[in-house]
């Protein structure tokens, strides 16, 4: 799993050699991990600036009310927005952390006004500009019997 997380395009032959198993065994293990839902997909890392994203921000959103229908509707609303790169439904003072990618500060302002503050369920937003962003390819794996 760790090797595939670092490079999802790793050829099966190389994966097998690095893990120390036969290629057929590696192929079967990856197939079982996909079927079990452990591996949920394979993705390409895209350079944001190369596709016109000049500014990224993390927007903390506090809802006015916390009914399940409102939370689920807001969640669905966020997922439908092309500017939303990822979102987190969190505990604490804020209800959602929304990672957005926009062209520039004008686009960010317009996005916040149109997509967030205009919604009646939104009580408050706080925007944090992101100066650098790097997703870790390391992932801790906690299986039965493993020490944390």
Automatic annotation (TrEMBL):
Xref: SMART domains: HTH_ASNC
InterPro entries noted in UniProt: AsnC-type_HTH_dom (IPR000485), Dimeric_a/b-barrel (IPR011008), Tscrpt_reg_AsnC-like (IPR019888), Tscrpt_reg_AsnC/Lrp_C (IPR019887), WH-like_DNA-bd_sf (IPR036388), WH_DNA-bd_sf (IPR036390)
SUPFAM superfamilies given in the database record: Dimeric alpha+beta barrel (SSF54909), Winged helix' DNA-binding domain (SSF46785)
Q: PROSITE patterns, alphabetically? A: HTH_ASNC_2
- The HTH asnC-type domain covers 1-54
UniProt keywords (A-Z) are: DNA-binding, Transcription, Transcription regulation
The answer, when asked if Transcription regulation is one of the entry's keywords, is yes
Classification via PANTHER family: LEUCINE-RESPONSIVE REGULATORY PROTEIN (PTHR30154), POSSIBLE TRANSCRIPTIONAL REGULATORY PROTEIN (PROBABLY LRP_ASNC-FAMILY) (PTHR30154:SF54)
Protein name according to UniProt:
AsnC family transcriptional regulator
- Species whose genome carries this gene: Arenimonas soli
């Amino acid at each position: 799993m760790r090797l595939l997380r670092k490079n999802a395009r790793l050829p099966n032959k190389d994966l097998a050699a690095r893990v120390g198993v036969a290629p057929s065994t590696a192929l079967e293990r990856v197939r079982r991990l996909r079927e079990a839902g452990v591996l949920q997909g394979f993705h390409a890392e895209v350079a944001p600036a190369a596709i016109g994203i000049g500014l990224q921000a993390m927007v903390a959103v506090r809802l006015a009310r916390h009914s399940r229908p409102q939370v689920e509707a807001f969640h669905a609303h966020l997922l439908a927005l092309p500017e939303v790169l990822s979102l987190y439904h969190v505990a604490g003072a804020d209800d959602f952390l929304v990672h957005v990618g926009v062209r520039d500060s004008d686009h960010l302002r317009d996005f916040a006004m149109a997509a967030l503050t205009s919604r009646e369920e939104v009580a408050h937003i706080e925007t944090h500009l992101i100066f650098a962003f790097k997703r870790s390819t390391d992932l801790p794996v906690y299986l039965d019997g493993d020490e944390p």
